Amino acid sequence: MSVPFHVLGMGWALPETVIDNEFLHKEVGLKKGDDWVSSRLGIYERRSVLSRDYIVKTKNADPAQAIVHARARGETTVTLGVRAAQKALAQAGVGPRQIGMVVVNCDLPFDPVPNTASFIAKDLGVRSGPHIDMNSACSSFARHMQYLSDLRDEAWPEFVLTVQTSCYTTRTNYAADSIDGYIWGDGAAAQVCSLKHAGRLRVEPLFYASEPSGAADVYVDSTKHFWQDGRKIREFSIRKTVETFEAIAAAKKLYAEDVYTVTHQANKVMMDSILGHLHLPPERSIHNVEKQGNIAAAGMPSAVAQRLDSLHKGDKIVYAVLGAGLAWGGGLMEVL
User: Which residues span the domain enclosing 216?
Assistant: First the structure.
């Protein structure tokens, strides 16, 4: 049985380079026009650890060189994760040396060894602890929350830092016929969690599962570009998100008009389709994908973090996320 706990602080970070659709069309040379992007994705801007000049000159034909380029510019999965964590710690009023565990999602680490959690803990000044990477692609926020909820009370440190960070643009093909170039952005999110101290949100994870038969439907190998079966993933994502929302509503006896909803920030058109299927009020949908693109596991928690100050005590947020694996999860958050 899942045990609720608290989020005391949330943070997010985005890289410096802004990639808007005009840049992709006029300078990079992507062929899909504004009408296609509006009707299929609803994404108009995203951020990248790559420079605009690099994207124009190379189309990112070699992902290995993209990592070298991003590292030279000083923006990596680790630096983004550290910046997001610093915001979360400041909001929580918790110092790095009070963190007893760091749990990190980084699907595409620049350095496979050691784990990204070790790098982030080192740069923050976190002391020793059972710091781990726990990667489940875009569903990793739900996996992190479920993992913490499943811990025995005595296994909980006083404070846990969870981080989701990714730089998918380093694995994005910007050739003329690319669709992925319109989708991906880079970014990170972080949360300071505690079982013992109350905070900004009460979190109750309710579902997490995976379907290995779909493992090959979304993948990135060790050296090449991102690939997915777009049609299959879109259909799966809409169906599974709808099912997850319905299951959470039934379990907690919730009504659409009483809650905010937030999904994996894959694209705005897909999210609007989910709202339509469930007759959910658009004004109570939390989202940021239009301006950030798909930043993988960091998308959903960054959207909540950016909206949190406008919410009120007692507001409830139903979350549902999906990722490669194929994996999905969801739960309930309440503003305190």
Answer: 201-335
